[in-house]
Amino acid sequence: MNKILSILAVGMVGACSAVSAADIIGTVTYKGAAPAEKTITPILDDPTCGASYNGKAPTTHFYAVGANGEFGDVIVSLKDTTGSTGASAAPAVMDQKACLYTPTILTVQTGQKLIVKNSDPVLHNVHLNPTVAENEKANEASINAAQMPNGADLNYSFVKPEKFLKFQCDVHPWMFAWVTIVDSPYYSQTGADGKFVIKNVPPGKYTIVANHRKAGEKTQDIEVKDASVTINFTFEPK
Ligand SMILES: [Cu+2]
User: Fold this and answer.
1) How far is CA 45 from the centre of its chain?
2) Digit-coded pLDDT (tens) for 35-80
3) What does the pLDDT average to over 214-218?
């Protein structure tokens, strides 16, 4: 780069940095053999639920680990951040399909709408188990709600952060899902590729937290300046 170009480049970076925010990107890896999943055998005893499985019971998916250790269903967030944009965010959706929740791990912001659907031709009973009193109160009306076959959607919204709030079905004792509530838009949940992106983070120093329901929690310190930052997490068998 010649001198004029480099001065221009520095000038442009300088001009942008005053207003820019950056993304935090990374990959979460599980190193080693994940614990074996459990086979949900009772699902076959229910004629309607069992019909979806042709005699082969599904398993739990507590550890979503890919061939190269890509670790899914890990929630990565910036600790102690606020400024939830949940009220204006698109609703999150959880479905009940073939007598399982899908997804089983979900993250929403405070104030964001969560819609629970029933796509099955069977009755489900959605039963929430909040550990935070404010979240219990905010959802009193539907905290233990029957949902008819292909019945009307149930709607929820949470007011305080909470980790892995348990949803269960009282009709089908194998049905569980866990919803994590965060208080800012600075979060991401890893997909099957183990990757996460936390977008538009204002410059500053943060503690970044990776949470997995079974594998636990890991934290790292991170500083965001005016460019994207990469940070990775590795979990191992306990
Ligand atoms: Cu059910």
Assistant:
1) 31
2) 999 999 999 999 999 999 999 999 999 999 999 999 999 999 999 9
3) 98
Q: Ligand 1 center to residue 124 CA distance, Å? A: 4
Question: Are residues 142 and 157 in contact, defined by beta-carbon separation less than 8 angstroms?
Answer: no
pLDDT tens-digit series, residues 44-53? 999 999 999 9
β pairing state of 162-169 and 124-129: antiparallel
CATH architecture of 83-185: Sandwich (2.60)
In this predicted model, what pLDDT tens digit does every residue of 168-203 receive, in sequence order? 999 999 999 999 999 999 999 999 999 999 999 999
The reply to whether 83-185 shares the fold of 20-81+188-238 is yes
> Does the domain made of 20-81+188-238 have the CATH classification 2.60.40.1120?
yes
Cα 181 to middle of ligand 1, angstroms = 23
Task: Answer whether residue 8 shows pLDDT above 60.
Answer: no
What separation in Å is there between the alpha carbon of 200 and the centre of ligand 1? 39
DSSP string, 50-65: HTTTTT---B--S--B
105 CA → ligand 1 middle, Å: 17
Sketch the domain layout of the chain as residue ranges. 20-81+188-238, 83-185
Q: If you average pLDDT over residues 136-144, what whole number do you get? A: 97
- Give the C-alpha separation, 138 to 111, whole Å: 10
Residue 61 Cα, ligand 1 centroid: separation in angstroms?
Answer: 17
CA of 145 to the centre of ligand 1 (A): 11
Alpha-carbon distance 186 to 24, whole Å? 9
